[in-house]
Specification:
about 170 residues, mainly alpha, two-stranded antiparallel ribbon, about 5% strand
């Protein structure tokens, strides 16, 4: 609280963020509704709070963006590590085969060459009996094209344009 007994901007935003997080985690409908009302009341107190809410939304968007970048970075790291592991395993296997070794021991580890149970290689799918085939049909609905058609006045059976409220922050 500031010298006038009012919440500081930081306290107001922190309370709003806490209410939003509690609302997102609410399990009981009455609790969710109560928290929703508290969030709305917190937003309505002053116009300047709307600006602070905008900053919170921008903060969450920034966090999402940072998480997306981190996911890409970690995915690339995982893929690189898997590639390096597979390359090194291949090198060890090749070296062992080249030197006629079935087993290679270290102080705490042992490498052994084993024969895999085998994988199926289909070199002529037409020659494979129908018993071992299945037919699949994939239907892709082109939502963007449907939206364009409906907006242009075309009646598209089985589809309609639904308008939902959304929050635009400027």
């Amino acid at each position: 609280m500031n010298a006038h007994g009012q919440m500081t901007i930081y306290e107001n935003v922190a309370e709003l963020m806490e209410l939003v997080e509690r609302h997102a985690e609410a399990q009981i409908p009455e609790e969710a509704e109560s928290l929703r009302a508290a969030v709305l009341g917190q937003i309505d107190r002053t116009h300047s709070k709307v600006d602070r809410v905008s900053h919170v939304l921008a903060n969450y968007a920034g966090i999402e963006s940072a998480c997306d970048r981190e996911i890409k970075r970690l995915t690339a790291l995982r893929n690189s590590a898997a590639s390096c592991r597979a390359s090194l395993e291949g090198l060890v296997l090749h070296t062992m085969i080249e030197h006629g070794l079935q087993r290679l021991e270290g102080n705490t580890s042992v490498f052994k060459i084993q024969v895999s149970p085998g994988t199926v290689e289909v070199f002529d799918a037409n020659a494979v009996p129908a018993t071992y085939k299945r037919e699949t049909i994939q239907i892709d609905v082109q939502r963007n094209e449907i939206a364009k058609a409906i907006r242009a006045g075309v009646d598209v059976p089985g589809a309609r344009l639904v308008k939902r409220p959304l929050l635009k922050v400027s």
